[in-house]
Each structure stands twice: as structure tokens, then as C-alpha cells.
Write a structure and sequence with these properties.
- The protein is of the alpha/beta class.
- It has helices at residues 40-48, 81-86, 90-103, 110-125, 131-141, 158-170, 188-199, 212-218, 237-272, 279-294, 355-365, 401-406, 414-423, 440-454, 470-482, 494-500, 520-525, 527-544, and strands spanning 2-11, 14-24, 29-34, 55-60, 66-68, 176-180, 204-208, 221-226, 229-234, 318-329, 332-343, 347-351, 373-378, 384-387, 458-462, 486-490, 503-507, 513-516.
- It has a six-stranded mixed β-sheet with strand order 5-6-7-3-8-9, sandwiched between helices.
- Strand 8 and strand 9 (229-234) form a beta hairpin.
- It is globular, with a radius of gyration of 28 Å.
Length: 545
């Protein structure tokens, strides 16, 4: 078990949280949530001992092993993938390396033999003979094939490194597991595997995530950072959200009652302050007002942007006709003879582990790159707006936010643009920030504002939830659910896909496509589709061998 006693963290005058007293028990998974900047990652670092709190202590049951998802993607560049995973259990790895070093000696002495025998016994006690099979199973579940296991980490792409580091954190059945955004860079299949792994995990898990479906699936409790405190709630994210909405309504109602009572008393004071018979009551009510206004109601640190896409015209019958698109990227044929007809009312989620194919398709139909072969044609009534996975090229200039947004509208009314930015949480002087210094989440909100101003009736989104906090994801989710036009999107957010999409297109190996008109959960649960997917992936494995 891990617990905190009077944990306080201050940065100068700013208090992130104060007097935090919590117990995280085995068998539970705790989702740590809060607004951006509230201190979620910092609290995990305090629990792991990476940073010291201003006050208070963290206590771990003696003998228990803690594992943390590493954030430095270059720390293990000189190690093989297999060794990197096993290093998640430091004691086991050290015993294994010391044992192997002794056996590698040219002059093997009797003393070496005695030492090796002791290490062999310790290695067995630590379940060392199962280390490589366990590591291989974790890597396979996270989409790292066997041929990559002996590669050095520096040879891997960034997304694959993250998967290996996640396998490292999960390795060896740690007693306490701290995971900061474990679903980043994972496809939906790998997220499903991780959800299943954690649901069968019997020890303590504390996780930070912006994926609502993930939090709902794995969490038994929610630890909420708000009002400068961290409070525990039993239940998953949806249960917490309903409870928090009820609490917010109660606070609002209480505040309204106090304001009404204050107004009533002030009116009484004004009417009877000069009346000798009533002056004593007026004085009494004045004292009550002072008590009522002494303690202000706390306000939440959470902020929800306003996201609403309003098309300037309705879509006609012809939306998008794609015929035979083929494209090779860096010597790899990512699209081959791809055809698709998008129809009015379609909200399509493109799924599958091949993210490059989806991104390439979106880049082609948005006009950013040309196909090697094939054609696509938008309907004459269609105005598309595109959200790219990499938006950095839009923020190179030293424009302020008002100037930047003005590029994408015919309006010269600065107050209108400031109001629009305010709805996207850039209020007051924040609207004059230079765009080249914005954070990832701020850039996403700018791109959403640009798309909202366009009046487009067809929206193309490539991983739109990256860098967004839960509040912004919820707002975007609502905006797309309410949108009356056509949507094409690539997302790894399960709940986002299921609540928005009415058509699923999966990119499978060997350029195979599955196209079904249904919601995402229905797609995943269909026995017919499971059989078809198994057939496709088994065929791919046979061809690979």
C-alpha cells in the first residue's frame, strides 16, 4: 500500500495542493484527474520520490516494489528492447547481468562458481527464468513484434519506444504501478489490451489519463485535484462526473440562496434602519450579512471551451468520391487502389493500427499532398476543413492570437475575434500571446477556432484529442455529436469514436479494408466482424512467415 500524510506542494505563493491525506490500497486502480496545470504529473513524481513535497510524507509498505512509466524516451537508447523491458525489475536485471558476467569470464574460478550458484538461486526466486517469456508477451500485446526484441532502443520510432517503456513499467508484477498518460501513442487495439491487463491486475495502480473510456474501464476510484485539494471518490470516471455535476449544482444553489437572503436582509435594513422600533432587528441582520459574506464559495479550476461547428450551407447528395488512390511514403506503399464513397450524414471513424495510411489519406483529400495514382472529387456543395495531426507549420510566425485568427476570417472586428478566443479560453491579455510560444493544448484550441470560423460542412480530424485535457475533449465531443454535416476522423479515443461515428472503416494488413455502417462498440462486439478480422490478420501472419 502507498499513502500520503499532510502532503503540501507550493511554488512561491501558489499552492498546488495542501494537506493531502490519502491511502491507495492493493486491488484498486485510481484515476488521477484535474485541469491542465493542476499538478497531476507532479503528484505522481512526489509519490515516486522523484521530487520532494513542501511538506508531508509518502509511506510505502516495506518490501513493496514500485514501477513508474518512464518519460525520458532516450534513457535506454543503448540497450536492447528485451533488456529495456527486464530493467523494469532492477533487482532481477542486476542479478541477471552479474550472473552472465561471471559465466563470460575466461578464467572461471571456484569462487566464481560459488557466487554464480548463489546468483542462480536468487535469479530463480525472482522468477528470472520466466523473465524473457513475460517480456515477450507484454511486447506482443503492445504491438512490438518479435523481430524487434533484440534491436537497440535508438533504432525504434518514438511511438514504439513509448510502447517498450510501458512494457517495462508493467514487467515483473510490481506492487505499485504509476502510469502517466499510458495510452499516448497507442492504437485502439493496444489500448484494449492494456485495459484488459489492468482489469486483471491485483496490485495498486495510479494512472493519469485523458481517455474517458480507459478511465471508465479500468478505474475503481477517481482522485480529483481541484480547489487546491485531492479528494478520492469510489467509482469510475462517469460516476465521478455525475457526482461532481451534482456537487456543482448544490454549490450553485447554495450560493443563490445566500445571495437571495443577503438581498432580503439588505432591503430590510434600508427600510427600517431609521425606524427606532425596528433598528435593533436591522442591526442584527447586518451582522448576519457580514457572516454570510465572510467565506466565499470555492471556484473550480476546470474550464470548458465552447466548441460548436455551424456549417454555412447544407451538404448536397455528393460528398466525396475516391477512386483507386495509391501512395508510397518513404519506400512503403501505404495506400493501394483505395476507393471510397462518402455519403450525406456520414460520420466516419477510420481505425486500425496503420496510422500512416489514415494520415496519408487525409493529407491527400485535403490537398496537402498528391497521390501517386487515383482520383478524388469533392461534391460542389462541400466545404471541407482539415485538422492535421502535426499542426506546427501553422504557428511559425510571431503573430498574436487575434492577428493569427484574423487570417482565417473576413471579419475586421477585433472585439468579435477576442470574444471568439474567449470562448476558447483565451481571455483578456491572453488573446495577445504570440502563437509561436503556445502549448500543445493551446494550439489545438486555436486550430478548432479556425475550423469553427470556416463554416465548413465537412470536417476532417486526424487525432484531434492529442494534447487536450478532459474538459476540452468533452467539449469537442459534444460539438461533433451535435454537428449536422459530415465528419471523417482518425482517433485513438474509444469513447470519442463510439459517441460520434456512425460508420467504421478499418485499415487492415495487405491493403484490406472493412467498411461497416454502425457504431464503434457495435463494431467491436460483432461476431461476424471478429471472424473477418481474424481471417485477415491470420492471412497476414502466414504471408509474413
Amino acid at each position: 500500500m502507498i499513502s500520503t500524510s499532510s502532503i503540501t506542494l507550493k511554488y512561491g505563493e501558489r499552492i498546488l495542493f495542501k494537506d493531502v491525506n490519502l491511502k491507495f490500497a492493493p486491488g484498486n486502480c485510481y484515476g488521477l484527474i484535474g485541469a491542465n496545470g493542476s499538478g497531476k504529473s507532479t503528484f505522481l513524481k512526489i509519490l515516486s520520490g522523484e521530487i520532494e513535497p513542501t511538506d508531508g510524507v509518502v509511506t510505502i509498505t516495506p518490501g513493496e516494489r514500485m514501477s513508474v512509466l518512464k518519460q525520458n524516451h532516450f534513457e535506454f537508447d543503448e540497450y536492447t528492447v528485451m533488456h529495456t523491458v527486464i530493467m523494469g525489475h532492477k533487482k532481477l536485471y542486476d542479478v541477471m547481468m552479474e550472473k552472465d558476467a561471471i559465466y563470460a569470464k575466461e578464467n572461471f574460478t571456484e569462487e566464481d562458481g560459488i557466487k554464480a550458484s548463489a546468483l542462480e538461486s536468487e535469479f530463480a526466486d525472482l522468477n528470472g527464468w520466466e523473465a524473457e517469456p513475460e517480456a515477450a508477451t507484454l511486447l506482443a500485446g503492445l504491438g512490438i513484434p518479435e523481430e524487434m526484441h533484440e534491436k537497440k532502443m535508438k533504432e525504434l520510432e518514438g511511438g514504439d519506444k513509448v510502447r517498450v517503456l510501458l512494457a517495462q513499467a508493467l514487467f515483473g508484477n510490481p506492487d505499485i504501478l504509476l502510469l502517466d498518460e499510458p495510452t499516448n501513442h497507442l492504437d485502439l487495439e493496444s489500448i484494449n489490451w492494456l485495459e484488459d491487463f489492468l482489469n486483471h491486475y491485483s496490485n495498486t495502480v495510479i494512472v493519469v489519463s485523458h481517455d474517458r473510456h480507459f478511465l471508465n474501464t479500468v478505474c475503481t476510484h477517481i482522485a480529483d485535484i481541484d480547489f487546491g485539494q485531492i479528494k478520492l471518490y469510489a467509482g469510475n470516471y462517469d460516476f465521478w462526473y455525475m457526482a461532481s455535476q451534482l456537487a456543482a449544482k448544490q454549490r450553485k444553489d447554495e450560493k443563490k440562496k445566500r445571495e437571495d437572503k443577503i438581498a432580503e436582509m439588505k432591503e430590510f435594513i434600508q427600510r427600517f434602519a431609521s425606524n427606532a422600533a425596528k433598528s435593533k432587528q436591522a442591526t442584527s441582520r447586518k451582522k448576519v450579512i457580514e457572516k454570510l459574506t465572510l467565506e466565499e464559495m470555492p471556484s473550480t479550476s476546470r474550464k470548458f471551451p465552447y466548441v460548436a461547428f455551424k456549417p454555412e450551407r447544407e451538404c448536397g447528395r455528393n460528398i466525396l468520391d475516391i477512386k483507386g488512390l495509391t501512395k508510397t511514403v518513404d519506400g512503403v506503399e501505404v495506400l493501394k487502389d483505395f476507393s471510397l464513397q462518402v455519403q450525406n450524414g456520414d460520420k466516419i471513424a477510420f481505425v486500425g493500427p496503420d496510422h500512416l495510411a489514415k494520415t496519408t489519406l487525409f493529407q491527400i483529400i485535403s490537398g496537402e499532398i498528391e497521390p501517386d495514382a487515383g482520383t478524388y472529387e469533392w461534391g460542389i456543395t462541400i466545404t471541407p476543413a482539415y485538422y492535421p495531426k502535426d499542426n506546427s507549420s501553422y504557428f511559425q510566425d510571431k503573430l498574436n492570437l487575434v492577428e493569427w485568427l484574423q487570417q482565417y476570417t473576413t471579419s475586421d472586428d477585433e472585439s468579435y475575434l477576442r470574444g471568439f478566443l474567449g470562448r476558447m479560453l483565451f481571455s483578456g491579455d491572453e488573446s495577445l500571446k504570440q502563437v509561436n510560444v503556445l502549448s500543445g493544448g493551446e494550439k489545438v484550441r486555436c486550430m478548432l477556432a479556425k475550423m469553427m470560423l470556416s463554416g465548413a460542412n465537412t470536417l476532417i480530424f486526424d487525432e484531434p484529442t492529442n494534447h487536450l485535457d478532459l474538459e476540452s475533449i468533452q467539449s469537442l465531443n459534444t460539438g461533433l455529436t451535435d454537428f449536422t454535416g459530415v465528419i471523417l476522423m482518425n482517433t485513438h479515443d474509444h469513447q470519442f469514436a463510439d459517441t460520434v461515428a456512425n460508420r467504421i472503416i478499418e485499415f487492415c494488413p495487405n491493403n484490406r479494408i472493412i467498411d461497416k455502417r454502425m457504431g464503434f462498440d457495435e463494431y467491436l462486439l460483432s461476431d461476424d466482424i471478429k471472424a473477418l478480422r481474424d481471417s485477415i490478420y491470420n492471412e497476414h501472419q502466414r504471408l509474413s512467415i
